[in-house]
Amino acid sequence: MTQDPNDAQDTGPIDYLVVEFTSDAMTGEAFPLLVDLVDRGIVRVLDLLVLRKEDDGTVTGLELDELADGSTGLEIFSGAQSGLLGHEDLAEAAEAVEPGRTAAVLVYENVWAAPFASALRRGGAQLVASGRIPVQAVLAALDAAETTS
């Protein structure tokens, strides 16, 4: 993705996900929801790649066309490759995947946050740390707080 450096000032935070599926669990139910997020301008998909890690550990890339059957809308992301993901990134993503599983690697811009992030940058602010709290940790903390109440 080639971008004018001045345009980068208007970019929202960029995140990535690696989502692992068992072959029989890929229902396609989530894909229309991703399409909806894009259609509503909440996120912009920069990269969407699918890989398969075989039982022997070998990793192969799958084309979205191989997964898309026309009912999920997933085919609109065919070719979504910004250049942000390098070979090392994909190898690292593959390390997180269990043998015999398929995974989607999604890099996306949080378009909804772009105006806020731009205003912060114009004011001289810079992001010095970020993170994500796994849902399981939030639920466990809420359960623990409820137990002690």
TrEMBL record:
Pfam families: DUF6325. The lineage of its organism: Bacteria, Bacillati, Actinomycetota, Actinomycetes, Micrococcales. This is DUF1269 domain-containing protein.
